[in-house]
Specification:
Elements: H1 2-20, H2 24-45, H3 50-60, H4 66-74, H5 76-99, H6 102-165, H7 176-187, H8 191-216, H9 221-232, H10 236-255, H11 269-273, H12 280-286, H13 310-314, H14 324-349
Helix pairs in contact: 4-5, 6-7, 7-8, 8-9, 8-14, 9-10, 10-14
Amino acid sequence: MDDDFWKRHLEEAERFARLADPLREFRAALESPMLRAQEQLAALCRDPLEDFREHIKALTDPLEQLPEWVKDNYGQGAIAQQLKEFTAPFDRVAEQLRAVSGQEAIAEQVKALLEPFNGAQTWIKAFRSEEEERLRQWSTMFDDFARQLRDLPDEVRGQLTVLMDQGWCLDPEMPHTWGRDLVAAFQEGEHDEAQRWLIDYFKGRVDEIEQTLVERHPKRRAVIADAFQAHREGRYYLSIPVLLAQADGVIHDRHQRQLFSKKPTANLMEVLSGLPEDDMRAIFIAAFYVDIPLTRKTQLLQDGFDGLNRHAVLHGIDPNYGTEINSLRAVSILNLASYLVTEEVDVQIA
């Protein structure tokens, strides 16, 4: 029943509509195709760039407001505000400076500022004074050193004279102050103590001296080694003649002359004459050509002489020369003779 009711109701409404507009159905039938044709024609005639212009307009509309935005943010007023914010700290400093009243306050501030520098000046003055004193001390030390160098040749001559009178040669490796102490000991009557010190010194140097000799004179390596071996074994009657002969030998290798000869044509006097008086080689060479027990004539030796005399040893005059102290004396003589020729070569090379 309900369906029939609504169906009859719709039919009545449709009938009333036809009565109100008899042409409605006819017009609807005509308008529908026409409207569709008009819409299609309008679409065909529409400007294809219209959509693009609308997109461009959507993008450019905000730019139209840019001049106003720039004016608001970067106009003279805005720049002035930024400058004011930038200079505000300086304005505060200026206000603080204006708050300082009078030259007296400024002077106090300057004084406080310079106070650390005043302390530095005091330190610099004290440092300069200390440096001047230190330089004066150095100058005095260098003056003393220069004086010692000037006096050294004479001092070495004096030391050699005393030591060679006791049968010893000065070791060039020995500090000259030690030689000074030895000379003082002999001159003050401490003969035994000085002799004991020299024995101990050269005993401690035997190995080093041998090594130096065989390096300087490789052709004489074997005979030098045998002589030192005999010394270590206590066979001093064998070691002493060989050591003395090698002292003459190393000089002959260099100059074809003899160290112990008294003849000017055979000894080193000609070599000596070509050296300055203050040359250490000249001082050492000259020490062999003065009156010393080593080269003294045997008839001039004192009774009971137990030292080292080259002529008495090599010519068999002294049968009692074979002692440790005389063998160490012979070591000191060969050591000095080797130093003389080696130092001469070094000077020529330099």
